[in-house]
Amino acid sequence: MGLVIEDDQDIRELVRTVLTQAGFDVTVANSGAEGVKAARTLNPDVITLDLGLPDIDGFEVSRQIREFSDAYIVMLTARAEELDTLIGLESGADDYLTKPFRPRELRARIAAMMRRPRSLPDAGETAPVPDRPAEAVSASGNGQYSHNGLDLSYASRSVSVDGQELNLTRTEFELLYALLEAGRTVRTKSDLVRRLRDEDYDVGSYISEADERSVEVHMGNLRKKLGDSPQQPRWLQTVRGVGYRLAPVGR
């Protein structure tokens, strides 16, 4: 199920067509309030959200939807300013595109997101297991990791810290899982962008500074939820100018 929240009729119909061609049953809403109501009622898999809505701005719509939905949210905005992009990601959006955008790019972004699990695997399905345990991480197989009081289960899509379960977005979960897989090996920002696009290796796709900046924002949100300190990290260590890796054991 796809939901398009957009007040511009031409763009609304364009996005509806893109999602329909991608195989979604699509519902449209032309205001923020209508969009929040539709998201609550329909429980869509993916939502495209205009930033400049006539009643409630897209930032607030995203925040309200995040209170009850784990749908992927792609923010569509005519504003190219970095601050607007960062606020959008901090309000709960998973990705963004600046208008005018190419329909093919929107479809590719959505397809990449939908290849990531939205909920628990079916009974009997096994989660992917890395080829070898990550250094400095306790890996018990089947996507189970423990590190400095943090426990992650890929099969149940759950994360807890000192026994307290956390509510992560799927993007935050995927970033944390990628770092646990890698252990003390540095994951570059470009590498993490590709991970979120479901590209297993460098296929030559373009990665902009804004793409890498979005990873920084998601990592910042993840840090806040973990209660981690950039200065004295317990889990997420920044390698300045490069990317991220796990903090050593015992921090």
Give a brief outline of the structure.
Residues 1-114 form the Response regulatory domain. This protein is of the alpha/beta class and 251 residues long.
Describe this structure as you would to a colleague.
This protein has 251 residues and is α/β, with parallel strands linked by helices. The chain has two domains: 2-114, 3-Layer(aba) Sandwich (Rossmann fold); 140-246, Winged helix-like DNA-binding domain superfamily/Winged helix DNA-binding domain (Arc Repressor Mutant, subunit A, Orthogonal Bundle). The chain is 37% helix and 21% strand. The chain has eight helices and 13 strands. The strands form three sheets. Strands 2-1-3-4-5 form a five-stranded parallel β-sheet, with helices on both faces. Strands 6-7-8-9-10 form a five-stranded antiparallel β-sheet, covered by helices on one side. Strand 9 (158-161) and strand 10 form a beta hairpin. It is globular, with a radius of gyration of 18 Å. Keywords: DNA-binding, Phosphoprotein, Transcription, Transcription regulation, Two-component regulatory system. Residues 1-114 form the Response regulatory domain. Residues 117-144 are annotated as: Disordered.
